[in-house]
């Protein structure tokens, strides 16, 4: 009956069960040192919602659903990952079979047909792992994509793993050459790679005793290589074998678009992060978990517009700094002044202001490294502790504080756009069902006011009961928070929430994704309780219910730009497209970068109010991507995007040929 002796030809082979304690001890020691560094960080609760966290590991760790989005790298990683999973399971089964089943229970379950298919499975997945490693070597050293930074460690580890896999098959092949190939050739075909190696040994002309000696040498070499690799795990990039699933487990389950709040702001003595040890333990964990795969960089509009900014490089720079500083803290030398400063030396202050907080880096990261909160925490320190921020932002802060809008236009004119439209103020219609939160752009910007007017037309045709706050409305505070002025943000939040509670507001509609995200995902941090709808959600619902009747054709080619704060942060992708498809004769032409991979317009994270003088202009790049599909209209559903794309079209002198319009404007025209 088909079977295999576990320690065939290996005298005292069972000694490996003692020897394995050495790499296990080194592994444990390495992980413990990492744990001590993480523990220095501030407390943060990441062990709630356990079922969802376990499912996250299953979805993104075991089934690799984010990894596979990059086809070549995804297939490569799947081959290596599942190859090692199956080989490891095989080793465990071998150990159980040889020690528990055979010696204690005096039985064997790895014999006959089960053994043959067990052997076939291990051979197949071992071969897959070799193919995956070869693909990795080809990708790193032949294709050489920009996002990968090839360090000596990468080549050493890949070759190390490859040699370990090959020696494993050579062990199998030498055993088979001395036994199965001659005695049981019908068994050998179930170990195809081992059979190939066995035939190679036979071709050398070695005697059986020579093959047996070779088998012993390679067996111990294979064990040494495997044990060495295992011990090296926590000191190399292979630590992601442990850290990646843990990072997927500890990922945030808060709303994507919600930044953390600074509690008890009035009583706090420091704000944001100026030293690495001021990060939370999870933010420090992120530094070690980062794979340096470069997917964040590959989709970062700031990096792609040739600015000195890369989410990957910032993460790795902070990690390098933390390994030095953290060690000194553990040694009781935290007051040592020989280390570089986190802000200024490690992370350039200029780089922090380039980020648009578009969330593309986090959307693409296969293990959920959280970049945006880290950037904002560093900004908070600069703004609130050092009063350092781009000079263009000074009037923006002042305008928000004194007039409730970033332009500083008189608050008493906030509702002027609606005077001729018969729009009621909520103070005059307390029984209204919906509050239309117009937002600053919809109230003061000429382009935004056209969107507000169009949306009012839609609401009125549908017979929706709505009203506005008018002069009582103030900025939602999104830009203030993302620039780092948490104090101003919370001041604006309290002002708005006070009005909402005063008028017993339960349902809010807004045209601005930034207002939508703040109201829906961040205001609840301060006790707000209401339903929030973006106008694309609401319009689509009205069309589906037959309350909005589209009666005009619009024979135009339209491409739709996904706003970062509407799409990536809030998952609203389908509704805008369904609206456009409901308009007769509209030809919807998609851009290459769309939905989760949409390219930012360049205005998020407070960049709307800052000059862009370094590298290429992000809005111009996005406009060029849109123009590739030859649209008559570039449509969006965000006032920031509307402004940025319209400016880019005008910069190219194409405003007579290509229009930039909000979806509400197109629907209003079609009804």
Structure description:
The chain contains 29 helices and eight strands. By secondary structure, the chain is mainly alpha-helical. The chain folds into four domains: 193 residues, Up-down Bundle (Fumarate Reductase Cytochrome B subunit), CATH 1.20.950; 109 residues, Orthogonal Bundle (Fumarate Reductase Iron-sulfur Protein, Chain B, domain 2); 152 residues, Rossmann fold (3-Layer(aba) Sandwich), CATH 3.40.50; 114 residues, Rossmann fold, CATH 3.40.50. The chain has a four-stranded parallel sheet. The chain has a four-stranded parallel sheet with strand order 6-5-7-8, sandwiched between helices. Helix 26 links the parallel strand 5 and strand 6. Helix 2 packs parallel to helix 10. The protein is elongated, with a radius of gyration of 31 Å. It starts with 15 loop residues before the first helix and ends with a helix. The model has no long low-confidence stretch (mean pLDDT 94).
Characterize this entry briefly:
The protein is mostly helical and 671 residues long. It contains 29 helices and eight strands.
**Class from helix and strand fractions:** mainly alpha
Number of structural units classed as domains? 4
Percent strand: under 5%
Roughly how many Å apart are the termini?
Answer: 79 Å
Quaternary state reads single chain
Number of helices: 29
Outline the low-pLDDT stretches.
none
Q: What is the CATH C level class of the largest domain, in words? A: Mainly Alpha
Spatial arrangement of strands, main beta sheet: 2-1-3-4
Mean pLDDT: 94
Indicate the radius of gyration in whole angstroms: 31 Å
**Mind telling me which CATH architecture of the largest domain this is?**
Up-down Bundle
Indicate the percent of residues in helices.
40-55%
What is the makeup of the main sheet? 4 strands, parallel
CATH topology of the largest domain: Fumarate Reductase Cytochrome B subunit
